Amino acid sequence: MRELEARGLVGAGLVLTEAQKEQRDELAARLYPVPRIVREALARYGPAAASAAADE
After folding, report:
1. For residues 25 and 40, what is the distance between their CA atoms, to the nearest angstrom?
2. How far lies 8's CA from each of 1, 13, 43, in Å?
3. How does DSSP assign the chain, residue by residue?
4. Helical axes 34-45 vs 47-55, angle rounded to 10°
5. What is the spatial distance between Cα 18 and Cα 20, in angstroms, rounded to a whole number?
6. Which residues 6+ apart lie within 8 Å of 20 measured at CB?
7. Residue 56 pLDDT grade (very low, low, confident, very high; cuts 50, 70, 90)
8. Contact at 8 Å (CB) between 26 and 3?
9. 4 and 10 in contact (C-beta within 8 Å)?
């Protein structure tokens, strides 16, 4: 997100060129949405992961 802001690619009312839009979309694709972060954390560290590790 910092990189998007530093390059001036986010904000209300921006008029971006096609190249800027492509760059913004490429950088935005690398962002992790909150639900994905939660799912991955639960899979790694949640109760199911803890019980599976205890069974080993």
Report:
1. 23
2. 11, 12, 35
3. -HHHHHTT--STT----HHHHHHHHHHHHTPPPHHHHHHHHHHHHSHHHHHHHHH-
4. 20
5. 5
6. 9
7. low
8. no
9. yes
Retrieve residue 29's tokens. Answer: 């694709």
Residue extents of the structural domains in the chain? 2-55
Tokens 């790694």, residue located: 44
Both tokens assigned to 37: 């972060």
pLDDT in tens, 1-54: 888 889 888 888 889 999 999 999 999 888 888 998 999 999 999 887 767 777
